[in-house]
């Protein structure tokens, strides 16, 4: 049994935690400021979930507090964004402050469970963990989830006889479940642990009642506004199917049944997922349908499913950060503080596994930390592995890593060679294994630089976009989206010959894939506009709409052509359809408003 310092003993000076907190705040603030004006800090449809939350926050600020439909994505973060005025820098600075508090709570949790010797490296690891620095600046619910997870555990550890701490523990856990609904499965385990600790029935009941009351806000609101009994979000069953289907690879990846057209769009996903057997269903029915399809895959292909679960398990422990929405690669290229934050997931996992092994004898004492690791691992196995979904487990792994490191240090000091060799050997094996998990890095690299470029294109800065697109194509020459965006960039700059050359390359790479053929039609029409061959451009977009009548971009481009041709009635029809299909397309909405004013003026 390890010797631990008492949480209440004076012990050594607390300067290490002060250093860790200052380093946490300083590195993250430096990172956020280094990203000002960059695509990373730009609200953009290219960062699909972040954009969805941002627009949702704007709607809340305009007075649409409850909304009119079932929550499609998890609701806590957009309300937080709205409370901060949907100001990007204010949101990022708030998340920097949350990270500082998270570091302090991690230190105290680790100190109480494993002792100060483990707490200091855990807090320092938190400060220097690159992926945690990265997500502090991202407009996603990662930072708030990290904070709420740590707050829930810390409050339960310090609650004692103070009723208000039990109330806050319930509040924190309830909000955590709103961020990550699958963690609700931890509530019975937590209550069981509290029973073993003899926390008292009244206190346990207070914590549980508050947690359930907070969680209940979501289904009650869903039923109140939509009369649809959806427990958390309309996306739940869809997410399950993304992670459990014949083509799943353990990460989030599009499926032919749900993804139509170039790129990803929440609006297209909403339409595709609700149309079942030719009829639009309620969200509760649609979510249940996709959940049932996922379960059907598991029943019909159990061997394939078990292999998939095995891959998810390996991906969960892999050093590589599987990106989605935000890409560390492009941010790291332009940020010195992110490059200085050298602590990787593989290093943390290596030490954490040894720490979990050594802590097993004190598992009742460390139960809450084990529970949180298990909760996030089970979530990954049930759904899929993504960096942003895995990141909130890192603080709890750091707690074990700090303990594992302190035990190695003690073994060295006591000259317990056998245990030291075993610990170092296991850590080295885990870290080496974390680098060997196969991941299609070139695909993600191409996605990263394509997204980076597309945000520059949205800002009409093609000169910055073109090098990024060439970098994307160097990583993955067959990436259709990158080639399509490069054609758009050249066409927009009037570099018609280069656009036509890229169009030929795209035509040679298309094959029979429907999305690729759609990209080819759209690209050919865009090049026709650059050549001022508007008749051919119209024919190209109309051909695309014959195949994909819900392609909002094609409707938008047709509308712009008709504006130039002074055919305002047809422009109005096209732009109206574009906005109906994609209400978040600000450019289409602005063009429609101009046309509407012109039509009414006449």
Task: Describe, in plain words, how this protein is organized in 3D.
With 602 residues, the chain is mainly alpha-helical. Among the domains are: 15-152 and 321-436, no CATH class; 441-550, Serine Threonine Protein Phosphatase 5, Tetratricopeptide repeat; 557-602, no CATH class. Helix content is 72%, strand content 1%. It has helices at residues 15-34, 48-61, 76-83, 88-114, 116-128, 130-137, 142-158, 163-179, 186-196, 201-226, 236-243, 266-274, 283-300, 302-316, 328-333, 336-340, 345-359, 367-382, 387-390, 394-414, 417-436, 441-458, 462-475, 480-492, 496-509, 514-530, 534-547, 552-564, 568-581, 586-601; strands at residues 275-276, 279-280. Strand 1 and strand 2 form a beta hairpin. The protein is globular and about 80 Å long. The N and C termini lie far apart (86 Å). The model has no long low-confidence stretch (mean pLDDT 94).
Précis, in short:
The protein has 602 residues and is mainly α. It has helices at residues 15-34, 48-61, 76-83, 88-114, 116-128, 130-137, 142-158, 163-179, 186-196, 201-226, 236-243, 266-274, 283-300, 302-316, 328-333, 336-340, 345-359, 367-382, 387-390, 394-414, 417-436, 441-458, 462-475, 480-492, 496-509, 514-530, 534-547, 552-564, 568-581, 586-601; strands spanning 275-276, 279-280.
List keywords for this structure.
globular; 2 strands; mainly alpha; 602 residues; 30 helices; Serine Threonine Protein Phosphatase 5, Tetratricopeptide repeat
């Amino acid at each position: 049994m390890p010797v631990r310092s008492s949480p209440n003993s004076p012990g050594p000076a607390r300067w290490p935690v002060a250093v860790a907190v200052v380093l946490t705040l300083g590195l993250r603030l430096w990172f956020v400021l280094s990203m000002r004006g960059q695509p990373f800090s730009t609200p953009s449809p290219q960062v699909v979930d972040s954009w969805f939350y941002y627009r949702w926050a704007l709607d809340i600020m305009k007075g649409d507090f409850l909304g009119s439909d079932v929550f499609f994505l998890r609701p806590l973060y957009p309300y937080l964004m709205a409370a901060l005025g949907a100001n990007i820098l204010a949101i990022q600075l708030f998340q920097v402050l949350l990270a500082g508090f998270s570091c302090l709570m991690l230190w105290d949790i680790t100190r109480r469970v494993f002792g100060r010797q483990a707490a200091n490296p855990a807090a320092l690891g938190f400060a220097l963990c690159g992926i945690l620095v990265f997500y502090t600046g991202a407009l996603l619910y990662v930072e708030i989830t990290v904070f709420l997870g740590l707050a829930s555990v810390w409050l339960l550890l310090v609650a004692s006889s103070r009723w208000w701490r039990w109330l806050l523990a319930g509040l924190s856990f309830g909000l955590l479940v709103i961020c990550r609904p699958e963690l609700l499965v931890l509530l019975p385990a937590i209550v069981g642990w509290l029973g073993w600790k003899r926390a008292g029935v009244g206190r346990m009941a207070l914590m549980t009642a508050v947690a359930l009351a907070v969680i209940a806000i979501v289904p009650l609101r869903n039923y109140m506004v939509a009369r649809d009994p959806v427990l958390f979000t309309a996306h739940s069953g869809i997410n399950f199917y993304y992670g459990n289907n014949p083509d799943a690879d353990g990460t989030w990846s599009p499926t032919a049944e749900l993804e139509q057209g170039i790129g990803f769009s929440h609006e297209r996903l909403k339409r595709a997922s609700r149309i079942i057997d030719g009829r639009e269903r309620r969200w509760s029915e649609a979510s249940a349908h996709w959940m049932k399809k996922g379960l059907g895959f598991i029943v019909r292909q159990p061997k394939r499913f078990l292999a998939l679960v095995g891959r998810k398990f390996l991906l969960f422990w892999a050093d590589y950060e599987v990106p989605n929405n935000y890409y560390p690669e492009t941010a790291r290229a332009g940020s010195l503080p992110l490059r200085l934050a050298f602590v990787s997931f593989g290093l943390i996992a290596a030490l954490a596994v040894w720490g979990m092994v050594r802590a097993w004898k004190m598992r009742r004492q460390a139960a809450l930390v084990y529970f949180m690791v298990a909760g996030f691992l089970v979530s990954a196995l049930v759904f899929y592995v993504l960096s942003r979904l895995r990141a909130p487990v890192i603080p709890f792994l750091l707690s074990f890593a700090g303990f594992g490191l302190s035990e190695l240090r003690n073994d060295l000091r006591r000259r317990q060679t056998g245990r030291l060799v075993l610990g170092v050997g296991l850590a080295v094996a885990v870290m080496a294994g974390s680098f060997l998990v196969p991941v299609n890095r070139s695909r993600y690299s191409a996605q990263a630089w394509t997204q980076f470029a597309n945000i520059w294109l949205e800002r009409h800065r093609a000169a910055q976009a073109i090098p990024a697109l060439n970098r994307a194509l160097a990583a993955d020459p067959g990436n259709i989206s990158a080639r399509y965006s490069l054609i758009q960039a050249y066409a927009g700059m009037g570099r018609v010959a280069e656009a036509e050359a890229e169009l030929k390359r795209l035509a040679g790479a298309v094959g029979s894939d429907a999305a690729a053929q759609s990209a080819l039609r759209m690209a050919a029409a865009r090049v026709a506009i650059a050549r001022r061959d508007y008749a051919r451009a119209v024919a190209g977009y109309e051909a695309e709409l014959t195949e994909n009548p819900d392609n909002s971009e094609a409707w938008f481009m047709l509308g712009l052509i008709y504006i130039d041709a002074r055919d305002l009635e047809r422009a109005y029809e096209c732009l109206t359809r574009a906005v109906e299909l994609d209400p978040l397309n600000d450019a289409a909405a602005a063009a429609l408003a101009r046309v509407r004013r012109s039509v009414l003026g006449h």
